[in-house]
Amino acid sequence: MAEPFILCDGLVKIYKIAGLEQVALRELNLSVQPGELMAIVGASGSGKTTLMNILGGLDRPSAGRVLVDKQDLLRMSDGQLNRYRRERVGFIWQQSTRNLIPYLNAIDNVVLPMTVAGKMKRSRQHAAELLTLVGLGNRMHHRLSELSGGEQQRVAIAVGLANDPPLLLADEPTGEVDTATAELIYNTFRTLTREMGVTTIIVSHDPGVARQVDRVVAIRDGMLASETVRQTVVRTPEWLAENGHAASSEHHAVTFEEWVVLDKAGRVHIPPEYLEQVQIRGRARLEVTADGILIRPAEDGAERSQVVVAETVTETQKSGGLRGLFGRRPGKKT
Ligand code: ADP
Ligand code: MG
User: Fold this and answer.
1) 320: Cβ below 6 Å to ligand 1?
2) Are 159 and 112 in contact (CB under 8 A)?
3) What is the pLDDT of residues 146-191, one digit of tens each?
4) Whose CA is nearest to atom 27 of ligand 1?
C-alpha cells in the first residue's frame, strides 16, 4: 500500500470546561490514502467534528500523532498551522451560509479566498474553471439568494478548492438538503477526487453514504469502531449460469463489507447490541477455533457456544430461570 496521506496514531483530544474533562477522541487510529474519498459516520457527540477540526488545523490534539502529507501537525508553530489551514485544507460546513458571503455572486465568492491568499493572477479564470467543475458554469454571476441550497453548497465546494488544497474536509455537507440534492453533492465530490486527485473526507449522518464513497469509517466514543469498504465483484458467465442469471456477459456487482477495526494493541470495539444479545459484561472467554476467534460470556460453561447461550436465554425468558445467572434486567428484550 502507498504511504498514507493522513496518519492519525493514538490521537487523543480532551476538552476541559470548568475543571471537567471531556474526552472527545480516545487513541484514535486512522490512515487515509492519497486521493481517497472517505466518509465518517457516527452518533452525535462521537468525535467526528473534533477529528475534522484537528485534521484541518483548527484545533490541536491533546496527545498522539497526526501527519498530513508528511507534515506533523503537532510540531507546527501557530504560524505554521495557520498557513497549513489556509493553503493545504479546504473546508465545507453544513450550513452553506458559513462558507459563503451572501451579498457576493458565485464567482466573487470563489475569487475571495484567492485574493486573501494574495493569488490575484488568473483568479477569475480559475474560479470560473472550478465553478464549471462543480456543475455551475451557467450560474457564475448569480447571487447566492438566486441559488438553491444544493447549488450554494456546490459554490461552497468551489470556494473550498479555490487555493488548490490537497485535502478537502466536509462536515455534514448534506445535512440540510434533500436526498436528490445530496446525491448531486456526492457526485461533485466524486468528480473532484477523480479529476483533481484531492483527498476528501466527508462527515455524514446519511446511512446510504457507503454507496457514494470508497470507504466509510464509523467512530464510536472517540475511537474508530468499524470500516465499510465497497468492493466490485466480477461475476463470471459460469457463476451467472449456475445461479440462474442470464449469462450473456460478465456482471459487475457492488458489495459492501463491514469490518471491525483492531488497534495496534489488539483492541476491538464490539457493538453494544452484540454484547447485550449474548449477555457479555465486563469479562469474556476467548478461544481460538478453526474459523477464527470466539468470544463468549465468562460465566458460561466452557462447552456451550455463544449462540446456544443466546437461545437458552430466550427459551427460559418466561420462567426467568437464567435471569439471575446472567444478570438480565427484567423486561429487557434479548
Ligand atoms: P460529533 O461531531 O461527532 O457530534 P464532536 O466532535 O462535536 O462530536 O464532540 C465530541 C465530544 O466532545 C462531545 O462530547 C462534545 O460535547 C465534546 N466537545 C466538542 N467540542 C467541545 C468544546 N469546544 N468544548 C468542550 N467539549 C467539546
Ligand atoms: Mg459534528
Assistant:
1) no
2) yes
3) 999 889 999 999 999 999 999 999 999 988 888 888 888 999 999 9
4) 15
